[in-house]
Amino acid sequence: MVGGSTNNNHKNIEQLDEETLFIVSQTFKALGDPTRIRILHLLSHEEHSVNDIAEKLSLLQSTVSHQLRFLKNLRLVKYRREGTTLYYSADDDHVMNVLQQTIHHAQHH
What domain of life is recorded for the organism (predicted)? Predict the structure, then answer.
C-alpha cells in the first residue's frame, strides 16, 4: 500500500488558521509598499533614529513615524529608547531574509 499512502498526503496538509492568514497577508502588505521596503532595507544593516531614517531616505519625519508604527505592530521592527530618542532596528530575521532575497533577485534578474 505504499502507492496509496502518497495520495493521502494531500489530505494531511495543515489548513491555515485565520490568525496565520492575517499575519501573512499583513506581512506581504508591509513588503508591498516602496517606503516600507526602503525603511526595512535601511534597518536591516543597522539601527537608526526616526530623524536618521527621514534624513537618509529624504522622507518627512511624520511619514517615517507612521510607517514605523505599522512595522512595529507587525513586529518587523523594534526600538530602544536612549533619552528622548528612539532607535529602530529590524526585529524579524525571517522577513528580513525574504526582503533581502527579493532585492537580490530583482537586482540580478
Answer: Bacteria
Contact (Cβ atoms closer than 8 angstroms) between residue 1 and residue 50: no
Give the separation between CA 93 and CA 76, rounded to whole angstroms.
9
Indicate if the pLDDT at residue 3 is higher than 70. Answer: no
Mean pLDDT of 36-52: 96
Mean per-residue pLDDT, 36-63: 96
Residue of 104, 94, 106 whose CA lies nearest to 28: 94
Position 109 scores a pLDDT of 72
Domains observed in the chain = 20-107 (1.10.10.10)
More confident residue, 63 or 109: 63
Looking at residue 9, what DSSP letter applies? G
Helix (H, G, I), strand (E, B) or coil at 49: strand
Residues 106, 60: Cα–Cα separation, whole Å: 27
